[in-house]
Write a structure and sequence with these properties.
12 helices
């Protein structure tokens, strides 16, 4: 029993660290380049909204007695939600890092070189639609005859658990949409220069470990797959992440490989020129100071 718990803990921690690490390469790359060119602000913007919803979902599933009680009524064979404390920690960390990355497109705040700081009308409309959808579900649950409460006699009635599921499905939908603008940007530029591949490598590893954790939890619960159907967001997010990350890997290492290498050479050349200009400027300053000293 201790060995299975240790395995479960190890998978949970490794998944959390892998996905958490994936948020650092892009802002670090932006800061080192002093630029956000080659990337789109739509990705971190909608990503922030998605992880706010995921944080709300994981927090309620783990800490709310009401939600956990309603979950147990709906899933009597596996009454314990498969959401773990590492899911809550990961979601809160993701909100902070996604918001930080989004802020880097604000030129007045960071002063980075950028091609665009506009999110785009479609993404704004999509975000507003998501918020309105959650408000509608909230109204439906609160105005139901049982006011969001359920019993074992009527487990299928509208419940606050349905609102939490709605929030989780919102995160799944956002995950499908959020990658598309950056994939399209890479396609139009025929390059992945400026887009950190390290975040994708960590992201795909986190996706694999996330799916493995859900399946392992279900197996340890006696092979009851209600742990998967009862936590569809976590299972779907892992699989969706793997699919889209595969596209980014193809773009980076195969489709646009030559353009990426050319872009790196251009950036290296630019840095060398700037360094040379700086060295030349320092040399001229020293010569001028010596000339002035000789004149005196």
């Amino acid at each position: 029993m201790a060995s299975t718990e240790a395995l479960r803990f190890a998978r949970a921690v490794s998944r959390t660290f892998s996905w958490s690490f994936s948020f650092y390469p892009q802002p670090i790359l932006n800061f080192r380049r002093r630029s956000t060119t080659g990337t789109t602000p739509a990705f971190p913007f909608i990503n922030t909204l998605g992880f706010i919803s995921y944080f709300a979902y994981t927090y309620c599933m783990y800490f709310s007695p009401l939600i956990r009680q309603q979950y147990a009524i709906r899933n009597p064979a596996a009454p314990e939600p498969t959401v773990r404390i590492n899911d809550v920690v990961f979601a809160s960390h993701a909100v902070i890092l996604s918001g930080l990355t989004w802020s880097m497109y604000l030129k007045r705040l960071w002063g980075f070189t950028q091609t665009s700081q506009r999110v785009g009308r479609f993404i704004w409309a999509f975000a507003i639609g998501c918020i309105l959808g959650i408000l509608i579900v909230t109204f439906v649950v609160s105005s139901s005859p049982n006011h969001g409460s359920i019993t074992a006699r009527d487990p299928g009635a509208w419940a606050w658990l349905d609102l939490i599921y709605g929030v989780s499905f919102l995160k799944v939908i956002i995950t499908i949409v959020k990658y598309c603008p950056q994939i399209y940007t890479n396609y139009t530029l025929m390059s992945t220069t400026g887009w950190s591949i390290e975040q994708i490598l960590a992201d795909v590893l986190g996706g694999v470990l996330s799916v493995a954790q859900v399946c392992l939890d279900s197996l340890l619960a006696g092979g009851n797959w209600e742990g998967v159907t009862g936590n569809p967001a976590k299972f779907a997010l892992g699989n969706i992440t793997i699919v889209f990350d595969a596209v980014f890997l193809m773009q980076h290492y195969w489709w646009y490989r030559h353009n990426r290498l050319a872009g790196k050479e251009a950036e290296t050349s630019k840095d060398s020129e700037e360094e040379a200009d700086g060295t030349e400027g320092e040399r001229r300053t020293l010569l001028d100071e010596r000339a002035e000293g000789g004149g005196q």
